[in-house]
Specification:
Oligomer: heterotrimer
Mean pLDDT of chain C: 82
Chains: A alpha+beta, B alpha/beta, C mainly alpha
Structural class of chain A: alpha+beta
Largest interface: B-C, 45 and 37 residues
Distance between the termini of chain C: 39 Å
Order of helices and strands of chain A: EEEHHH
Low-confidence stretches of chain C: none
Number of domains of chain C: 1
Radius of gyration of chain C: 21 Å
Helix content of chain A: 40-55%
Strand content of chain C: under 5%
Radius of gyration of chain A: 12 Å
Helix content of chain C: over 70%
Shape of chain C: elongated
Number of helices of chain C: 10
Chain lengths: 85, 314, 286
């Protein structure tokens, strides 16, 4: 199950996607619009397959290797301690 | 094209980098911002294979930078910080020709390429002058020319515009933008935050070796601007300082206001809350019988963002 | 606008050729730098000539009978010591320049710029000394010719080539010491001093300035094993005794393996130091 780190807050920016703030480290991490969408889909926690399926429904033009792209994005989030362990 | 993951590096007891990650795709300019000692130069040196990280992995064009084989060095260009790195007893032309030949160019190719680059960076007239006689700015331009000898796929630039006048700095940025438009991945380390707007695609801000922010320039401004203004107020009947309590009442909940430490006796520092609108706050001051004579941002937005996040005491 | 792409050779032979061609760039660079210091350039020569004058006048006080004979003939002190002066100057200059070549790159900050090019550390190391390794032997030879002509020294012309061969076999030995010294300088930021001191002792006990048989017997025996002694004798014999190629083979047979060991040890020491500095991140710090 993929869940957000409770120490992370999200702030939407009009026209700029959004920004995640890790309250412990004080670091900000910018998200583009797709990143923002993925973050919003993780509100209640999801499995990887559920996440990919829901993304595929919501994106107008999903990339060819959507699971691969999502995996890379999640790896980046994990590296920055933005997801729950 | 440039990938740093969890890079940490200490020098003795001093932590220069702590878990820093950075990703630069082809055609992207990523600004590496931060005050002195933030770790920018150390990160650049890790990415160019000149320093081995204690932890983490750095790859450029898929190759680990610590190994830094010839193939990688042939496709990377570095503009180092500081003024050292040129042979000051020989001319700018000879400097470029020498490094061109180390890149495998023939003497003729190196000479032709050197003249082209000297023209581009505006040093053609000083080509045959000993580089020790160049000004700091000219030496920096020569250093940039050297980094461009073989049209690198990856360019690491550490404080390139430090000693350049505004016109030369703009032309350097245009040059680098042109390279990025042709597919180069650029890491642009700088303390000059005002130059990244409209130039860098993304920014990573370092603070004492750690990432304090990563995202677009607009996102940086949006999250980190404390929204401070200097307002000049006048009330015919009372000295400005005596107004402070009344002013604070007028703006309560939407801003804070206090007499400015520097400047005129009539200057106040107005700090807006997150969702407050400047016009409405000023209107509430006017409603409290105070004339708002002038209003200006205390610093540029981007400078505010930088100082706020970098934790600088400037 | 000239269009360029990375010029990278592939395959060992091609890489070797490409790296060798880069040495010409180093020679040009260092010649231009040396020429930019015109006064010291000339001063070096003046210093050597003055040294020759000093030995000439000292030699007037030396009883030639105390000197060894060469080819059955008595030689003057200046004839005896000329090869020693030239070789000692060669060693001092070569060691100093080879050791300081890298240090200069580190101090000026150009070492990192060199390492950012697709040039092997070995080429960089050789490149930093190749000009000196060409110039210094040429200077040595020219010096010998000048003092021979100026002081009417009786050198055998046919001995020039055998003497040059001995010198060539000796150069890598000095080069290796210099490279090892450069490695210790890279790490410790100062010439270690040990190698310089060691070479001064070797020069003193080499027969360069006085006959070895003036020393106690056991010292003479040890001194005869000294590579510098072998080089001095190897050059003196053909020039003073007209011995031609006799003895050159023996000198070269001893010097070549010593040179290989010295150069190998020096290069390995330097590479270790370079890797250590990169690992510590102190390469550009001085």
């Amino acid at each position: 199950m993929i869940r957000k780190n409770p120490q992370v807050v999200y702030r939407a920016l009009a026209g700029e996607g959004g920004v995640l703030l890790h309250l412990e480290s004080g670091a900000y991490h910018g998200l583009n619009e797709v990143g923002t969408l993925i973050w919003s889909l993780l509100d209640d926690g999801k499995t990887f397959d559920e996440l990919v399926a829901e993304l595929r429904e919501q994106l107008l033009d999903p990339p060819g290797d959507l699971p691969g792209e999502v995996e890379r994005f999640l790896a980046d989030l994990r590296e920055r301690d933005l997801l729950a362990a | 094209m440039v990938e740093a993951r969890g890079i940490s590096r200490r020098f003795g007891p001093r932590v220069a980098l702590d878990g820093v990650s950075l990703l630069v795709d082809e055609g992207e300019i990523v600004a590496l911002l931060g005050p002195n000692g933030a770790g920018k130069t150390t990160l650049v040196r890790v990415l160019t294979g000149l320093v081995k990280p204690d932890a983490g992995e750095a790859r450029v064009l898929g190759i680990e930078t610590w190994d830094c084989p010839r193939e990688l060095r042939a496709r990377m260009g570095l503009v180092p910080s500081g003024d050292r790195s040129l042979y000051l007893r020989i001319s700018g032309l000879e400097n470029l020709m020498f490094f061109g030949r180390l890149h495998g160019l023939s003497r003729r190719e190196a000479k032709a390429r050197a003249w082209d680059l000297l023209e581009i960076v505006g040093l053609a007239d000083a080509a045959r002058l000993r580089s020790g006689f160049y000004s700091h700015g000219m030496q920096k331009r020569l250093s940039i020319a050297r980094a461009l000898l073989t049209e690198p796929s990856v360019l690491m630039i550490d404080e390139a515009t430090h000693d350049l006048d505004p016109e030369a700095a703009t032309s350097m940025r245009d040059l680098v933008r042109g390279l990025a438009d042709r597919g180069a991945a650029v890491v642009w380390a700088t303390q000059r935050i005002e130059e990244i707007r409209g130039f860098a695609d993304r920014v990573t801000l370092l603070r004492t070796g750690e990432v304090a922010f990563e995202g677009t320039v607009s996102q940086l401004v949006a999250v980190a601007v404390p929204r401070r203004y200097v307002v000049r107020l006048r009330n015919g009947s009372a000295a400005a300082r005596e107004l402070e309590p009344a002013l604070q009442d007028a703006v309560r909940g939407r801003a804070t206001i206090a007499a400015a430490a520097d400047g005129d006796a009539e200057d106040f520092l107005l700090h807006l809350a997150e969702d407050a609108v400047l016009g409405e706050v000023l209107a509430s001051l006017t409603a409290a019988d105070v004339d708002v004579v002038a209003c200006r941002e205390e610093r540029s937005e981007i400078e505010n963002a930088y100082l706020n996040l970098a934790g600088s005491t400037e | 606008m000239t269009s360029v792409a990375p010029h990278l050779a592939h395959g060992r032979a091609a890489v070797f050729r490409a790296e060798s061609r880069k040495l010409a760039a180093f020679v040009r660079r260092d010649f231009l730098i040396a020429w930019s210091y015109r006064l010291p350039f000339v001063g070096e020569w003046v210093g050597l000539v003055l040294q020759a004058f000093m030995f000439y006048f000292v030699g007037l006080m030396v009883d030639p009978a105390k000197l060894p004979t060469f080819g059955g003939s008595q030689v003057s002190y200046l004839e005896f010591v000329a090869v020693g002066i030239a070789l000692a100057a060669f060693i001092a200059l070569a060691l100093g320049r080879v050791a300081s070549g890298m240090q200069e790159e580190q101090v000026t900050g150009t070492l990192e710029s060199l390492l950012m090019t697709p040039t092997s550390p070995t080429t960089i190391q050789i490149g930093s000394v190749v000009y000196d390794l060409l110039y210094i032997p040429i200077r040595t030879g020219v010096f010998l010719v000048i003092i021979a002509l100026a002081f009417g020294l009786d050198f055998t012309l046919s001995g020039l080539l055998p003497a040059a061969v001995v010198l060539l076999a000796f150069i890598p030995f000095v080069w290796g010491l210099g490279v090892a010294s450069a490695g210790t300088t890279l790490t410790f930021r100062r010439g270690s001093g040990f190698i310089g001191l060691g070479s001064s002792v070797l020069i003193l006990f080499s027969g360069a300035f006085f006959p070895l048989d003036l020393l106690p017997g056991w010292v003479t025996t040890l001194a005869e094993l000294n590579p510098i002694t072998i080089a001095v004798d190897g050059m003196r014999e053909p020039l003073l005794a007209g011995s031609g190629w006799d003895g050159v083979g023996r000198a070269v047979a001893v010097l070549v393996p010593l040179s290989v060991v010295s150069l190998t040890a020096g290069v390995l020491t330097f590479r270790w130091a370079l890797r250590r500095e990169r690992r510590q991140g102190t390469l550009g710090l001085y």
